[in-house]
Structure formats: structure tokens, C-alpha cells
Amino acid sequence: MRTGGRAGEHGQSGRGPHPADEQLRYQAEQFARATPARRPARPEGVADVIAFLASPAASFVFGADLPVDGGMSVL
Length: 75
What we know:
Blueprint: H1 19-34, H2 43-53
């Protein structure tokens, strides 16, 4: 027996996906296809750039803009 929690908390509502969720998923897929990388950003990819900039390996990087946008800034 399930106790507590909201209905559908674990995808068990039995009603299927909400139309707004489907629309958001569609828009995200379209946006990802429009980027030169052809995929959405992953948190790890952004974190890798931050880790590099915070590391000694980037000690000679000054005053540079480094877009982490999947190539959108070159379009």
C-alpha cells in the first residue's frame, strides 16, 4: 500500500503524460536540433568548462568570453 506523497509522484497516475509536458519536450527537441551541437547541454559539460577555468591549466586565460552554448553564438 502506498502512503503519503502526491498522485503521480512516481509516474503512477495512470493518466499518461500531461499535454504541457509533451509540448515542452517537443520544444526542447526542436531547440536542440537548431544548435550546431545537435543536442541539449548536459550539466557535466558546463561543469567541465567551469572546472577548467578554475584550474591552474587556465592560468593564462584573462578577459575572454567563453560561451558554453552548443554553438548558438556562432549562428
